[in-house]
UniProtKB/TrEMBL annotation:
This is Probable allantoicase. Belongs to the allantoicase family. Keywords: Hydrolase, Purine metabolism. Pathway: Nitrogen metabolism; (S)-allantoin degradation; (S)-ureidoglycolate from allantoate (aminidohydrolase route): step 1/1.
Amino acid sequence: MQMTTPESLSNYADSSAIADFADLTNLAARSLGAGVIAANDEWFADKENLLLDRAPEFRPHTFGPKGQIMDGWETRRRRGTSAAKPHVRPDEHDWAVVRLGAPGVIRGIVVDTAHFLGNYPPYASVEAAFVPGIPSVDEVLAEDVKWTGIVPHSPLQGDTAHRFDVAADGRFTHVRLNIFPDGGVARLRVHGEVVPDPDYLDGLTVDVLAAEYGGAALAASDRYFSPPQHMNAPGRSRVMGEGWETRRRRDDGHDWVAFRLAGEALITAVEVDTDHYQGNAPGWIRLAASDSGAGAEEFDLLPATPVQPDTRHRFRVAPDRPATHVRIDVYPDGGVARLRLIGELTPAAIADLRARAGE
């Protein structure tokens, strides 16, 4: 077997800018624990639909007691004060508040009006807030909570996924979607970088690659069938499409994914799960690690090791040096459902998290 080497991990060690929203963590993912905790109105369609993890659907002529059933959040029509003034004021609007599944820095927002045509809101804006602890709905909606505008009052179109870049550098736990004056939105996505609670992680042994703690896929050799972000998602995969799978190689190379950990960590155990990959699992896997920035020497976290189809593999490893980045090499190609790296963040990593959290 020829062990070809992909690009060095040092090329990704200082990388913080990711080209596409899809390569960032969806902080509003239900799988991370996000939820729509409040809305001023949801007459036609439930607010919880905003965070569903599937593409919006439309079934024509499917009616319930309140009309056509829509796969999204839809409010009733607002009215003015009288027949002489039938239209609402420009500042009147509906809103929904989302608790993020993980606190973090927001880099992009997607407001998707899929299938809403004659009933989409003409404008929207988004605000964000940081509310510590595990607040109640009343605490989040309290008057003393500071909300920061991250998407300005912006025009919308029907049946369109609107992408908005966000420049705010704060750490947020909640977002509020405002629609002017009323209407329907199918999905809301909040893409960014997780900044977990350093007090919680200090001294704990956890999965330092987990998306909920800030682990992220930075680059991959191939993502033909499914993206590498699936590998550090919460829980086990339910079907083959919930892992990372490459196309079939016809050369002498191999496939790989480079990850950034939640922070510098001493890794003590590795789990590689080929769940649901039976005729398309890799033959071997290898884990290479790096412990600092550009030019850092790579070292084997796990040498080239055979793996079995549809199997959860667990390995103990020696934590002789910390790592900040890890690359999984699969030989020659195939699918991996989940990758877990069990370890403890170093004091330096906890200090860095405190700085990023503004402590």
